[in-house]
Amino acid sequence: AAVGLTEGIDRAGLLGLSYTAARFPEDVRADSRRALTTHPGVVLLPTTFRVVERKEGTWSMVTGQYSTPQGARRALVHHLTRPVPQLPDLPDMPELPAWMKVDEKEAALHARAAKKFTARRRPNELVLRGRRFEVIRVERVMRIGPDGPEKSRPSDVDDY
């Protein structure tokens, strides 16, 4: 399909990318290398936004993907202000597991941080007790080959 100059440059830069870092299992890296020849083309998908938590030397995803930065910001506020709900007393569970308990002081701190975050104009970063949350832009691609879009790879994990 015809594309503009900028998209063409972006796509050309993505053609040869594959998973190479040692943190990816060998079967994932092998499938990724194989896809360069079986599905050599790329199609840019719409950009999405999500919140990640930056950690020393790495990061982890906090929210799902949203079509706008504002959607990701709302998700961060929800993450901070909607702690895991308290369950009613259950016969087999006389006490909630520690991970389900809500610390009221911590919840109040999160609520104040969320309020300050939403008061700012287009905030993209929040630091809370040394934890750094950022709204990030996610560029997505789909590999395509002679038989159409790439299907799932043997190394793709599906726990369900």
Automatic annotation (TrEMBL):
Top-level division of the source organism's lineage: Bacteria
Name of the protein: Uncharacterized protein
Organism: Streptomyces sp. SID7499
